[in-house]
Amino acid sequence: MGASRDDNPEREGEARGPVKTNEQIIQEVVALMADTWLAACERRVVAPSLDGASFVVLDSRAKLFGPASGDECRQFVQRMAALDVLRALGTERVADAALRVANGAKAPMLNG
Description:
This protein is of the alpha+beta class. The protein has helices spanning 22-43, 70-88, 92-102; strands at 45-48, 55-58, 63-68.
């Protein structure tokens, strides 16, 4: 008797579909990162503050940041987008550590 379908290691990937190449995986990760980044930047809006001399960052729920300069608000939006990307990639601990460091805390050990 020959090897059954379950005993043949060459056919192992067939039951689950074709195996993705490294290039395909990288393309999917980059697409996820880009989509997450754009969505994060579109969700957060830099708007003039009530005093007319500074700006605030708003999203659909609340004021997130400010009043501050326009450059500081844009930097805030970019940093929040980067954190959203880290979270989308499943690196929640890294995103939380980055946020703590940005707020002046000492960098935590992530591997302990």
